[in-house]
């Protein structure tokens, strides 16, 4: 499922492009440390230091994890062998993330589709209905003529892969996200970590780990690092941080 985060060149809020406001008017996610305006996060007050507040992305991740743990618990107690257990498991696997043709979303979408199709043993008809619920925008238009027959499901996935899943296209989109990060953002380290983890995850899903040796990636990462961190790497031919004496 796509998340509503934006690249804010004016401030730290990841739900708008406005400048930062006073500290008391902004909130950080307890899990990922992204920052948001209270208004954008639809909060009427700032959570106290003792309260845990999760952004929309982290809430969805937690819900997905809880669902997986529930299914696992059901299976370990013999529930998977019952008709009810099988139905619950297949229902949990039924939902796919939405896909609108954004190349950055394709590796995860493709893996989720393949894994859940195999685990849930879904038929072509079931998979066609799953795709009808989540494909929209450019992705739907590319395969619209194929969405009438269940036997077209393999061709639908193939066409989507050829159109939106080219490894070079996906990588350039991911690299663009890194390039858009603001060096002076208060959450730059967290944002860089998330962007890099996303790149690593997707290039591995595509089976293209050599992309991680791209000089553009190294240069962009270095350029975004705060100056005092860059200086830790100066002078070492093997790019290892210098130890303080």
From TrEMBL:
Entry coiled-coil feature ranges: none
PROSITE patterns: ZF_PHD_1, ZF_PHD_2
Domain PHD-type: residue ranges: 10-61
Any one GO molecular-function label of the UniProt entry: zinc ion binding
Gene3D superfamilies referenced in this protein's UniProt entry, alphabetically: Zinc/RING finger domain, C3HC4 (zinc finger)
Keywords annotated in UniProt: Metal-binding, Zinc, Zinc-finger
Protein name: PHD-type domain-containing protein
Highest classification ranks of the organism: Eukaryota, Metazoa, Ecdysozoa, Arthropoda, Hexapoda
């Amino acid at each position: 499922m796509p998340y509503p985060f934006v690249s804010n060149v004016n401030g730290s809020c990841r739900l708008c492009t406005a400048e930062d406001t006073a500290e008391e008017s902004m909130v950080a996610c307890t899990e990922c440390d992204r920052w948001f305006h209270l208004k954008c996060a639809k909060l009427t007050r700032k959570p106290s230091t003792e309260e845990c507040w999760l952004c929309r992305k982290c809430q969805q991740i937690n819900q997905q994890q809880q669902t997986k743990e529930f299914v696992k618990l059901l299976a370990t107690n013999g529930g998977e062998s019952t008709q009810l257990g099988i139905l619950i498991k297949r229902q949990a696997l039924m939902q796919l993330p939405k896909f609108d043709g954004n190349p950055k979303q394709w590796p995860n979408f493709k893996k989720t589709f393949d894994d859940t199709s195999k685990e849930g043993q879904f038929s072509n008809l079931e998979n066609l209905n799953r795709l009808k619920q989540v494909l929209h925008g450019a992705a739907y238009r590319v395969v619209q003529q194929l969405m009438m027959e269940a036997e077209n499901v393999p061709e639908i996935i193939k066409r989507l892969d050829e159109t939106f899943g080219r490894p070079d296209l996906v990588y350039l989109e991911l690299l663009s996200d890194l390039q858009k990060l603001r060096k002076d953002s208060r959450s730059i380290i967290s944002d860089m970590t998330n962007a890099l983890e996303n790149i690593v995850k997707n290039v591995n899903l595509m089976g293209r780990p050599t992309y991680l040796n791209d000089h553009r990636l190294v240069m962009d990462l270095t350029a975004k690092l705060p100056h005092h961190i860059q200086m830790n790497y100066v002078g070492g031919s093997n790019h290892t941080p210098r130890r303080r004496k």
